Recover the amino acids of this structure.
């Protein structure tokens, strides 16, 4: 069952390369499955797709619409997706990756001046 769910999610990601949001949600669902393999059967329903879960997210965001803007946080959006698939647990949001700073210019050992070439 687990392998079938992973396969279904991966197939939808591959088939929807034009929509980057399918990949974001698909990757989240794959991580969820790694931690919760018992939920695999919930993803196997042929009428439940990542694309349709995005429509559910859109509906949820529209309920919070202010002016011309409707936004969900990551946790809110992923919770809507899990609820769409019939999963009651709260989403586990992976921490943001840290940014590695580039070396400062003072650590560069190569120094060339225009006068060196004249």
């Amino acid at each position: 069952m687990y392998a079938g769910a992973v396969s279904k999610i991966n197939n939808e990601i591959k088939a929807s390369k034009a929509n980057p949001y399918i990949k974001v949600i698909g990757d989240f669902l794959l991580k969820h499955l790694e931690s919760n393999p018992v939920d695999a059967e919930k993803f196997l329903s042929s009428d439940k797709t990542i694309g349709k879960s995005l429509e559910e997210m859109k509906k949820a965001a529209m309920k919070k619409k202010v002016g011309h803007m409707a936004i969900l946080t990551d946790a809110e959006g992923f919770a809507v997706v899990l609820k769409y698939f019939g999963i009651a647990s709260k989403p586990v949001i992976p921490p943001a990756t840290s940014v590695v700073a580039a070396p400062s210019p003072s650590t560069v050992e190569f120094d060339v001046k225009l006068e060196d070439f004249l």
User: Anything to note?
Assistant: The radius of gyration is 22 Å. The mean pLDDT is 86.
